[in-house]
Amino acid sequence: MTQSLEKFQGETLSWTVKDGVIELALHRAPCNEIGSLTLEDLERFVSALQELQLDAHALIVYSTMKPGFCAGADLRELYKRSTAMDVSSATSGVRDYLERIHAVMNVIDDAPLTTIAAVHGVTFGGGFELALVCDLIIADKMARFCFPELRLGLIPGFGGIPRLKRDLGNAVVRDLLLTGRSFNVTKAQQIGLVSQIAAEGEALRAARSTAMQLGKFDRRTAQAAKKFIKPIPYAELREEIDLFCELFQHPAVAAGLRKFVESTDALPYLP
Amino acid sequence: MNTSEQVVNEILTLAASHFKVPREKLSPDEDFFKTLGIDSLQALDLLTRLENHFHVELPDYELQGVSDFRALAEKIHARM
What we know:
Chain A is of the alpha/beta class. Chain A is built from 11 helices and 11 strands.
């Protein structure tokens, strides 16, 4: 594992810094599922970010995995751990995990530099939530977004609901959450979720071009503008964790997780 | 406006091209999972390409129970 502040190569992600732009690359096969390993690496990243952001004006988060940006929480790990203990202990473990994830997400959301999620392919669940903490989402033509949690008897738990409400109209939020359907980048741009669409495979290039432009602006002004226009919904984020943990205890969740895990599909994401 | 039959043909051509399967090996009533050798992730990829091609939005839950190209074409045609 290569370690320095400006260059890190971990098991699930790596980062580099060049010309004032931090690039965080996710690379855990098959599709950057966020489990305990990724969480540890993300915690390393946000710790380093405290110093990196002093000299950087932009952060780009992207994936090197072919299927997409991020398929969400590692449901197989969640199932394995939660079935090894009683419901109360499992719920407690889930709460701890969510609080750590939220801490990471909140740091990125509030970072004093412009953040860009360059997404392609599957951008589902926790992956969608990771994109939502960024200031801008630049997506390639094959990006597909979804909050499938309702299919498991859950709601998004990584802060997706408060952030969706922050960014989109309530009717759209209801549609996405209550139907659990996936949607393409054309729809995503129509509803104001995605700021730019790139050709297939070109989201990172577009993000880099945007980051270069951002470097021309006065950093202090950009920071002040971001703080003014982008509130962090801390109270609702805590409420989301409480609701998630309450729902997690229902038998439907264990059944939904079991069905997911027992599927022979590599990524059983059709409803 | 395209007929349903035209939609089927365009789907078969697009699927053959993207998944690198000879066009003549695909027929409208065959199971596309088996014929193309794809999983659900690749099916979502195909769905995105078809939405982009036909300029429609097709909720993925409409694919439930749909496994042949003709049925898929009917779903897409119903959104055009």
